[in-house]
Every structure is written in structure tokens, then in C-alpha cells.
Amino acid sequence: MNNGLLNKVFTGAFALFVLFIISGGISHASSGGTSHDSNTSEEVNSYDVSRENAFMQPTGEFTVLGDFAINNTLAVKVSDQSPEIAGKEITTTMFIKDGKYYINTIGPDWEFHNYEISYVIGINRRQNYLALFPNGAIHVLPAQWDIEQSKWIMNYGLDKNYPGSGNFWSDDARIWQFKCGGCHSTGMQINYDKASHSFSTTFASLGIGCESCHGPGSSHIKAARYNFDKEKETIVNPAKLPWRLRAGICGQCHNWGASTARVTPYRDGFPERYSYPYGFKVGKPLNLFYVNEPVDDKLHHQQYNEWNASAHAEAGIMCTTCHGVHQAGLHKNPHKAQTKFIADSLCTNCHKTTKKKAAHRILS
Ligand code: HEC
Ligand code: HEC
Ligand code: HEC
Ligand code: HEC
Ligand code: HEC
After folding, report:
1. Which of the four pLDDT bands, split at 50, 70 and 90, describes residue 164?
2. 210: CA distance to ligand 2 center in Å?
3. Ligand nearest to the CA of 139
4. pLDDT of residue 180
5. What is the pTM of this model?
6. Ligand 2: nearest atom to the Cα of 324
7. Same domain, 121 and 160
8. Nearest ligand 1 atom to alpha carbon 300
9. Would you call the peptide bond into 265 cis, given omega within 30 degrees of 0 as the criterion?
10. Taking the CB of residue 95, how many other CB atoms lie within 10 A of it?
11. What is the pLDDT of residue 271?
12. What is the CA(175)–ligand 4 centre distance, in A?
């Protein structure tokens, strides 16, 4: 394609883009990256069954990417703070037996155990492995796979922590239900029973389902759309929300901070607050549920904090101005950012010159 033609394509796309900003919302972004007309028949077409199905395919999330066969050990020098084995070298081993995946490492009692992997998170940059403890608590095992560098690295393990220190992977303060679950599963109910110190946690699925962004009942959305006009009213359509509330939908997860709610029932050693906006309801102001606590290190999921402090937030340029939400795979098997327009045209639609790398770090 020559540049002239490219320019025409982008100008066309830009015209559509502006139209949608004026009409107060952006409709479904197709995998092709252009917005759809907002007339009804076009919308229905854009929601054709095949695309919908593609979005709901089982995820790659459950695929183990780490090396459990050859480069399957991780040796680290134990933290000097450790009261028992400071300075020793300890080796964690990843292996497969009878089709099941295990990590052999030191647990809460300072002994080595084989922890079977029950769940997997991550498909892009790094992958975490989760173990279900006998009392129903889920813990993130201390060896994580760095996908880009193809190697094992420690995560809340003996290099910096030790059992009981409060930040060791198997400590109560690191329980997945409090630290991670709200952003990495849909419809989680923690169900902690203090008397027996046990969890009977349920969730609809690992990963991001329709309900995360449309509120409960979204499984009915398709039926509602095609059959029952009234049921439509029960579901949150983010496109109809004021823009800040709309950005809050993404901000419930693409954010760094703590819940306003305290962890209850509370037990000594638990974190005081959830790491996600516990109790958040789509369409409600995020700040009722979450206190932003951006950190300086480049940690994951801080896009909302960065955006919130940017000129774009002030000007009402939301996440969904630049990102599609339903592209095949975005939250199932996401591949790098998935913005609505390719490369620099995303920015040059509105700016004469700019670098897309600056998208979230506008003030820095
Ligand atoms: C406030 C919401 C939130 C919390 C809490 C949270 N995450 Fe995430 N996590 C995200 C978002 C959003 C992304 C994707 C965006 C990014 O990586 O910047 C992500 C990405 C990841 C990835 C990388 C996925 C990939 O494909 O590369 C892993 C692994 C992960 N999280 C594990 C965890 C673990 C383990 C915890 C708990 C200790 C946790 N997260 C807590 C929101 C959260
Ligand atoms: C990551 C958040 C997110 C997820 C997950 C998500 N949606 Fe959406 N959805 C949105 C947003 C935001 C809009 C508003 C349009 C826009 O901004 O692109 C929307 C709009 C819609 C609309 C159009 C409503 C209208 O009247 O135009 C339908 C239908 C829909 N989503 C169905 C679904 C279904 C079904 C699922 C699950 C398979 C789903 N969505 C998952 C965020 C999400
Ligand atoms: C002005 C356009 C724009 C806005 C507004 C915007 N983004 Fe982005 N986003 C981008 C671009 C461009 C990239 C790719 C950056 C790159 O290639 O390095 C990106 C990358 C990302 C990534 C991939 C990981 C990363 O940090 O690079 C995530 C996740 C993300 N955006 C989420 C969000 C969320 C959530 C919001 C709203 C709070 C948002 N974005 C607002 C343009 C935007
Ligand atoms: C319920 C939590 C949740 C919500 C709500 C949510 N996201 Fe995400 N998002 C995630 C997680 C987790 C990942 C990483 C998935 C993985 O790698 O396994 C992700 C991945 C992404 C990516 C790809 C990041 C990359 O690594 O390149 C983009 C872009 C993105 N989200 C944008 C959005 C936008 C825009 C919204 C709002 C319409 C939104 N998200 C709402 C949790 C969420
Ligand atoms: C929908 C239109 C729109 C798009 C798309 C857009 N911007 Fe912006 N941008 C604005 C507006 C409006 C402002 C605030 C007013 C101003 O400074 O011009 C702004 C401000 C900025 C600023 C801050 C300027 C300052 O003085 O503080 C930077 C940097 C920036 N944008 C970069 C980007 C990048 C990078 C992209 C592409 C990823 C992008 N913008 C995409 C509309 C847009």
C-alpha cells in the first residue's frame, strides 16, 4: 500500500471517529479496527454470531507456557533476614507428573512440598501459577515464568522473604482472594468462614467475562438484544454512561491501589484491604470503592492512574476512545494493546505530531 492510499484510509477512518465522539460514544470496534455506524441494523450486523462466539472461545489462559521439563529449576540465595536459613541457596523445581503440573518449593512450615498447580494467570508478559491450599485459600506460587525472556524468576519467594514474614508467598497476607481475584476472575464470591479459617470461594470463570464491564445479568444480553426488548434495561451499557463512569469500568482493574472496604471477616495476618475495588458496581463512581495508590516502579496495570493524571482525562479522552473492548481476544488472549487505529494514526487523528509511546505517561 502506498502512502497516499494509506492517508485516504486514515482520513476516512478519522471522519468516522469524529462522528462517534460527537454522537457521545463509540460503538463496537471490530477486529479490523474501525468503528461501526450507529444505525441499528448496522449494530446488529456488527454483533454477528461468529464474532461473539470468537470472543467467548475458551482462553489460552489455561495453557502452561513455563518450562517444566528442561530449564525447570530456580535457585536463589535466601534473604539475609531469614531467621533459619539465611544465605543458603535453595532450589525450586517445576515438573510434570501423570499429566499434572507441580512446583516443589518451601512452604509455610519451612519444608519442601509438591504444590499442584490449579490455575494459571497470564499469557503476554509473564505467567503465574496458583495452588489451592487445603483450607481453600489460593496462593500464587513463588516461581513465575517470564515469557519474553523465557526464564523463571522469583515472586514473593525466599530471596526477599521467609515464611511468616508477612510477605512470603504462602502467608495469609498474600491470599489470592484478597490480592488478585477481583481483577483476574469474574463473579468471585470469597465465602470465608472465620470459625474454621476456611474458604469456599466460587467464581464464574478465571479471566474477564461480560459481567466485569456490563454488570450482573449480562449473560442475558444477547437474548435481550435479539428477543426481549425490556430485558435490555437491566444491563449496563457503558456507551450510555457519562465518560468518567465509563473510564471507571476499565479503572476497576487497570489501576493500582486498595479498596475503601476493609477485609471482613478479619483475621490476624490478613491484608487490611482488598487490592481491588471490592464491591464495585459497574456504573458507580470508582472512588467510592477504591483509593488510587500509584507507585513509581513500572508495575503492571497502572494505566488508569496514569491516564487519570493526564491532559486526556481532563479533556474527556477515555480508554475506549483509543482502545476497542471486544476485539477477538482482548481480554481472553490479549495481544499487545489492541488500539483502534494503527500506529501513529491513533494519535495523529487529533494531534499533528506525537509519539504513541507517550499514551499513558503524558505528564511524565
Ligand atoms: C486492580 C486489579 C488487579 C489486581 C489486584 C491484580 N492484577 Fe494482575 N493484572 C491486572 C491487569 C489490568 C493486567 C493487564 C494489564 C497490564 O499487564 O498492565 C494484569 C496482568 C497480570 C499478569 C500478566 C498477564 C500477562 O499476560 O502478561 C499477571 C501474571 C498478573 N496480572 C498476576 C496477578 C497476581 C498474581 C495478582 C495478585 C498478587 C494480581 N495480578 C493482582 C489487574 C490486576
Ligand atoms: C472489558 C470490558 C467489556 C467486556 C469484557 C465486555 N464488554 Fe460489551 N461493552 C463494553 C463497552 C465499554 C461498551 C460500550 C461501547 C464501547 O465503548 O465500545 C460495550 C458495549 C456492548 C454492547 C453494545 C450495547 C449497545 O447498545 O451499543 C453489547 C451488546 C455488548 N457490549 C455485549 C457484550 C457481551 C455479550 C460481552 C461478553 C461476551 C461483553 N460485551 C464484554 C465493555 C465490555
Ligand atoms: C490517547 C489514547 C489512549 C488512551 C486514552 C488510553 N490508551 Fe491505553 N494505550 C494506548 C496506546 C497507543 C498503547 C500502546 C503503547 C505502546 O505501544 O507502547 C496503549 C497501551 C495500553 C495497554 C498495554 C500495556 C501498556 O501499559 O502499554 C493497556 C493495558 C492499556 N493501554 C489500557 C488503557 C486503559 C485502561 C485506559 C484508560 C484508563 C487507556 N489505556 C487509555 C493509547 C491509549
Ligand atoms: C475485570 C478486570 C478488567 C476490566 C474491567 C478491564 N480489564 Fe483490560 N485487562 C485485564 C486483565 C487481567 C488483562 C490481562 C489479561 C491477561 O494477560 O491474561 C487485561 C488486558 C487488557 C489489554 C491488553 C493489555 C496488553 O497486555 O497489551 C487492554 C488494551 C485492556 N485490557 C484494556 C481495557 C479497557 C479499555 C477496559 C475498559 C473498557 C478494560 N480493559 C477493562 C483486566 C480488566
Ligand atoms: C480523540 C482525540 C485525541 C486522540 C486520539 C489523542 N489525543 Fe492527545 N490530547 C487530546 C486533547 C483534547 C488533549 C488536551 C488538549 C491539548 O493539550 O491539546 C490532548 C493532550 C495530549 C498531550 C498533552 C499535551 C500537554 O500539553 O500536556 C499529549 C502528550 C498527548 N495528548 C499525546 C497523545 C498521544 C501519544 C496519542 C496517541 C496514543 C494521543 N494523544 C491521542 C486529544 C487526543
Report:
1. very high
2. 7
3. 1
4. 94
5. 0.84
6. 18
7. yes
8. 18
9. yes
10. 14
11. 97
12. 22
Phi (first) and psi of residue 49, to 5 degrees: -60, -35
- Ligand 2 atom nearest to 43, measured from its CA: 27
26 and 128 housed in the same domain:
no
**What nine digits make up the cell of 253?**
482493574
Residue ending a domain, choose from 132, 158, 174:
174
Mutational test site, ligand 2, from 28, 52, 235, 236, max ligand atoms within 8 Å of CB: 28
Q: Do you know the residue count of the chain?
A: 364
Cβ atoms of 117 and 141 within 8 Å: the answer is yes
Per the listing, cell 444477547 goes with 222
Residue 233 domain flag: yes
Q: How many domains, in total, are found in the chain?
A: 2
Q: Which domain holds residue 32?
A: 3-59+206-358
As given in the structure block, the three cell numbers for residue 345 are 494514526
Cβ neighbours of residue 294 under 8 Å, at least 6 residues apart?
A: 256, 257, 302, 305, 306, 309
Residues 160 and 41 in one domain: no
Query: Which ligand is closest in space to the CA of residue 294?
Result: 1
Q: What are phi and psi of 323, to 5 degrees?
A: -110, 140
Atom 17 of ligand 5: nearest residue by CA position? 311
> Closest ligand 1 atom to the C-alpha of 334?
26
Average pLDDT of span 249-265: 94
Asked if residue 72 lies in contact with residue 94, where contact means CB atoms within 8 angstroms, the answer is yes
**183 CB near ligand 3 (under 6 Å):** no
Percentages helix, strand, coil for the chain, rounded to the nearest 5? 30, 20, 55
Q: Is residue 164 located within the same domain as residue 218?
A: no
Cα separation of the two ends of the chain: 36
